[in-house]
Structure formats: C-alpha cells, structure tokens
Amino acid sequence: MSVPVHALAHRPLTTEAVAELVALPAVASVPDDFDAVDKEVRLRGWAWEEDGLVCESFRTAHGHVLCTDVVSPFGCGEARTFLVFGEVYPVDPHDEDMTNAAWLYGLVDHWQEQPGWTGSRPSTVEECQAVLAGAARVVAEHLGTAPERTVLSSDTLVTGPPLTHRVWRTATHALVLGPAADNGPYGYLTHLQLSSTPLSCGPELPPAEDEDALDAWIAAHIDW
Using CA atoms, how far apart are residues 219 and 206, in angstroms rounded to an integer? Predict the structure, then answer.
C-alpha cells in the first residue's frame, strides 16, 4: 500500500552535476570575497539563488540549488556543501492539522516552478524513493562504485516517513544522498539532496548493523 506525500518537486541529477559537486574542494581556490566569488559564479554559469528557496545559496548551471557553510566553496576542502535536487512536503499522520497547512503547498509549488523542475501533488513515498534511486544510479555511475551503506532514515534525522540514505566516501569527503531537514520558515519540509562534507565531520563510518551509530554519523554529515 502506497504511503501518501502531500507534494513532491524535483529536478533529476546528472553525472555532470555530481562531478561538479565532487570536484569543488579540489578546484582552484577562490578567496572569501564577494567580488571574487561572484566572478567564479558567473564563469560557471551559476547564479545567486534569489527566489527564496534556500537562504544564501547558489543556483548551479544544472538547475539545482547548492548551499554551503562558507562564503566560497571553491577550492575549500573544509566546506560543507549540499546540492538540493528535490523538495518534499510529507504527510504527518500524528498531526491532523498539517492537512490544513495549505500555505506549505505554495512553498513546494515554488520549487516546482523553477526551470527544469517537475513534481506531483499529491505524491507518494514510492515516488520520492524512485527519485532518490535515480539519483543514486547517477552518483554510482560517476564514482564507479555502489554505496557503502544504504539505510532508511529514522525520525531523528528527518520529519515524515522513512526515505533512503546512501553513503559513499572519497579519500577526503563523505557523500550522502537522501533526505535532509529543510530548516526553512516552518521546518517541516524535506530536501532531497546530495551532501559533500569532510570526513572529519564524524568518526569512521560505523558498521551497517549499528543503526544508532550510523544515524549519528549521517546526521553529522548532512546538516549544519
């Protein structure tokens, strides 16, 4: 039986988009100066994200939203970067009033209105999982390897029904594909994102059977 989701908006990942994100820490360094960052943004065909989707973020040339915890993610090995390719408004079965929060539909619709984005309203968890599975195939194709860990998200990581997290590691960074808290004005919407964060954000990747430790490791790598 399908599990309902109020709304889903997404733009598929491509190998080019994944390659760009993975390469960011190793590109030529750009100083933390607005003019220097703005020049790099324009050279890449990016833009400053000015549609209110995510505060202080970029719109990449591939149409995704990239947010980071530094002024310049270019050539910064310590930057935490998150490439958002989907937005979900999940159903909360424990909060009947959420069915009446019509203004949240507008936030997801705003994502869906962006160039190249599509979506459905209503949607299902299965559709969200299909979007994540498609993105996982692209990441695996670029990295040439299957994920090291595949686990359903717990309610300690995101609001709403469980969605799949997949974990890869490079020599220096953790790549985590899956749901993450939107951290927006309401805090209930969920990003579908590919996170690239330094491995130093958390200890060694826990074994698959240690679900609590794995949840903690993922949490350390997918949020601010």
Answer: 13
d(CA 24, CA 69): 14
How many angstroms separate the CA atoms of 29 and 77, rounded? 10
- Cα angle 129, 192, 218 (rounded to 5 degrees) comes to 95
Taking 90 as the threshold, does the pLDDT of residue 123 lie above it? Answer: yes
* Confidence at 102, pLDDT banded by 50, 70, 90: confident
Q: What is the pLDDT of residues 17-36, one digit of tens each?
A: 999 999 999 999 999 999 99
Start-to-end CA span in the chain (Å): 35
- What is the three-class DSSP state of 16? helix
- The answer to whether residue 139 scores a pLDDT higher than 70 is yes
Phi, psi torsion values for 3, nearest 5 degrees: -100, 125
What phi, psi does 25 have (nearest 5°)? Answer: -65, -25
